[in-house]
Structure formats: structure tokens, C-alpha cells
TrEMBL record:
Positions annotated as Pumilio repeat: 59-94, 95-130, 131-166, 167-202, 203-238, 239-274, 275-310, 311-350
Keyword ATP-binding: no
Name of the protein in question: PUM-HD domain-containing protein
Superkingdom field: Eukaryota
Keywords: Cytoplasm, Repeat, RNA-binding
UniProt entry tagged with the keyword Cytoplasm: yes
Length: 393
């Protein structure tokens, strides 16, 4: 019906040859009579199809905004801006400045704006930052705009930073609880002069516990503790101490407490360690609180640490056994073995040794045995770790 297969193939070959010849000259889209996809210009379509291998930034005149909003075009402009001449940067800038806001909120365009905050001249950065005015809250809450605000805060001078930040006054809690806005508030705290951020501290009054137990709020509280003045952090820490017991056991709050133990002043660490004392057995078996107990053991003073380890050494055999085979508490025991003073470690290890046989049966108990063996190698005077050889027969 179709004739011989060889003649069909030769006809197909001829058509393919014509197609290749024509497409090489004018582009496939022209051959099939189609316009460039999704309203793209011929320049962008050709670029996307690798038909312009050595395209230069200056050749994008009147196409910068279109390229910035295209995945491949945006990446091309970003790469070129890093090594662009002053004239090339200015040409690109002149085209994007009129569309700055729409580019800031665009999935690909926001990266081009960010590059200008990184590699633009000081004048270009200042002009771009002025385009943010009146829109800071909307941008902070927007998926792509929030990245632009963060980059701007890293790149502009203090007086402009403060202008940007002031627009968030009255909207702090809304931003903190937002998946995008919280990153902007964190960046404000990291980059801006603390005295210009007092409105953030004021907004947190009476809210510290609620924010510390919030997936985004807990990060913002940590940034405040890192970057704000002692005068500003004092009321925040006051509220934290009022809720220590609940925070220690909260899936987000425990990170705030750990942060104070790692980076806080000695008096605040001491209050937290005091809050754990007397509750080591109970808190060590808790998924979140056990991390706090570990941090207490690591960051306490020598005297405080000795008291915490003494608490463990004072447990009856059953309580100690419960801790050593527990999926969370075993890590507290390991940490205590690690950081104890030699005399106290010896007491602790002798206390543990009667349990060696039963610990081998438990996944987490084996961790304790490995830790004991490590220290036995360093201190053989402790005697053999395992059961007597005859027990193996």
C-alpha cells in the first residue's frame, strides 16, 4: 500500500533534509508557522533554543524585563551582571527600574533585583531601595519579595535600612508568624542598629511564650537574644524564665532555652540549670526536654554540672537502668560520662557496671557500653567492663 520501505525512507529522508535546511536558516517556529511560545520575543525564543551561543548583555537592549522574567533569561542576566561593565549595568538598570516592583515579586525576576543589590553601584542600590518604599509590608509577606527585602537590608546604608524597617512598625507579629515575613524580621534584627528596632521589642511584650512556641517565632526570639542590647533582651528573658518548665518540653520552645544555655549570660544559664535540677530523670525521658538537659550538662559551670551528675549517681538502680535503655535519656547519660570530672566519672561508671549484661539487650543500652569501653581504654584501673570470662561459656 505504501510502496517499498526503501522508497518511503528515501522520501522521509528528503523531507527531513528540507526541514533541517529551512530550520537552520529561519528557525523551526518559522517553518511550522508558529509564533514563539507563550508570547516570547524571537530573541528570547532563539536564546532558549541555543541558537545564539555568544549572546552578550548589550544585545538584550529592550528585552531586559522579558529576559528577567524567564527562568533561563534571568539566570543569564544574573551571571552577566557579576562581571558586567559600568555601561552594561546601567543599560540593564535603566530597563528594570520602571518594572522594579513587578520584578521583585516575580519568581525569576526577584533574582535579578537581588543581583543589583549585590553588584550594582551605590547609586543604583539607593534608587532600587526607594522603589521599595510604601511596599515593605506587602513585599515582606510575599514569597519572592521577602528575599529582595532581605538582600536590600544587607546592602543599603543604615539610614535607608531604618526607613525600610519603620514600615513594619505595627505589623511585627503578623510578619513574625508568616512563613515569608519571619525571615525579613530576622534579617532586620541581624542587620539594623538595635536602637532602631525597639518597636519590635515593644511588640513582643507579653507575647514571648507564645512566640517561643511558634515554628517561626522561636527563630525570631533567638535572633533578638543574639543581636539586641542587654536592656532590650532583659524583658524577653524575664518572660522566658517565667515559662521555663513549659518551654523546655515544647517542640519549638526547647530550642530557645538551648540557645540561652549556649549563648546567654551566666546568670540566665544558672536559672535554667536550676530549673532542671531535681527533674533530671523525668525530663531526660522527654523527646524535647532531653536536649535541654544535655545542653545543661554541657554548658553548666563545674559546680552546677557536678550537682546534675550527683543527681544521676543518687538514683536507685531501677531509675538508672530506665535512663540507660531509654531512647532519649541514654544520650544524657552519655553526655554526663563525657563531661564528668575523672573522680565523678569513676563513681558513675561503677554505678553503671552492674547493668552491663542487661544493657547489651537494648539498642540504646549498647551506646552506653560503647562509651564505657572508650573510657576504660583510657583508665584501665576501673577494671574489666564486661562480665567475667566464665559467663561466656
Amino acid at each position: 500500500m505504501f510502496g517499498s520501505s526503501s522508497s518511503l525512507l528515501s522520501k522521509l529522508g528528503a523531507v527531513t533534509g528540507i526541514t533541517e535546511l529551512v530550520s537552520g536558516a529561519v528557525g523551526v517556529s518559522a517553518l511550522v508557522g508558529e509564533k514563539p511560545a507563550a508570547g516570547r520575543s524571537r530573541l528570547l525564543e532563539d536564546f532558549r533554543n541555543n541558537r545564539i551561543p555568544n549572546l552578550q548583555l548589550r544585545e538584550l537592549a529592550n528585552h531586559i524585563v522579558e529576559f528577567s522574567q524567564d527562568q533561563h533569561g534571568s539566570r543569564f542576566i544574573q551571571q552577566k551582571l557579576e562581571r558586567a561593565t559600568v555601561q552594561e549595568k546601567q543599560m540593564v538598570f535603566n530597563e528594570i527600574i520602571g518594572a522594579a516592583y513587578s520584578l521583585m515579586t516575580d519568581v525569576f525576576g526577584n533574582y535579578v533585583i537581588q543581583k543589583f543589590f549585590e553588584f550594582g553601584t551605590q547609586e543604583q542600590k539607593t534608587t532600587l531601595a526607594q522603589k521599595v518604599r510604601g511596599h515593605v509590608l506587602a513585599l515582606a509577606l510575599q514569597m519572592y519579595g521577602c528575599r529582595v527585602i532581605q538582600k536590600a537590608l544587607e546592602s543599603i546604608p543604615p539610614e535607608q535600612q531604618q526607613e525600610v524597617v519603620r514600615e513594619l512598625d505595627g505589623h511585627v507579629l503578623k510578619c513574625v508568624k508568616d512563613q515569608n515575613g519571619n525571615h525579613v524580621v530576622q534579617k532586620c534584627i541581624e542587620c539594623v542598629e538595635p536602637n532602631a528596632l525597639q518597636f519590635i521589642i515593644n511588640a513582643f511584650a507579653g507575647q514571648v511564650y507564645a512566640l517561643s512556641t511558634h515554628p517561626y517565632g522561636c527563630r525570631v526570639i533567638q535572633r533578638i537574644l543574639e543581636h539586641c542590647t542587654a536592656e532590650q533582651t532583659a524583658p524577653v528573658l524575664g518572660e522566658l524564665h517565667a515559662h521555663t518548665e513549659q518551654l523546655i518540653q515544647d517542640q519549638y520552645g526547647n530550642y530557645v532555652v538551648q540557645h540561652v544555655l549556649e549563648h546567654g549570660a551566666p546568670e540566665h544559664r544558672a536559672r535554667l540549670v536550676a530549673g532542671v535540677r531535681g527533674k533530671v530523670l523525668q525530663l531526660s525521658q522527654h523527646k524535647f526536654a532531653s536536649n535541654v538537659v544535655e545542653k545543661c550538662v554541657s554548658h553548666a559551670t563545674r559546680t552546677e554540672r557536678a550537682l546534675l551528675i550527683d543527681e544521676l549517681c543518687g538514683f536507685n538502680d531501677n531509675a538508672l537502668h530506665v535512663m540507660m535503655k531509654d531512647q532519649y535519656a541514654n544520650y544524657v547519660v552519655q553526655k554526663m560520662i563525657d563531661v564528668a570530672e575523672p573522680t565523678q566519672r569513676k563513681v558513675l561508671m561503677h554505678k553503671i557496671r552492674p547493668h552491663i549484661g542487661s544493657l547489651r539487650k537494648y539498642t540504646y543500652g549498647k551506646h552506653i557500653i560503647a562509651k564505657l569501653e572508650k573510657f576504660f581504654m583510657k583508665a584501665p584501673e576501673l577494671g574489666p567492663i564486661g562480665p567475667p570470662p566464665s559467663a561466656a561459656l
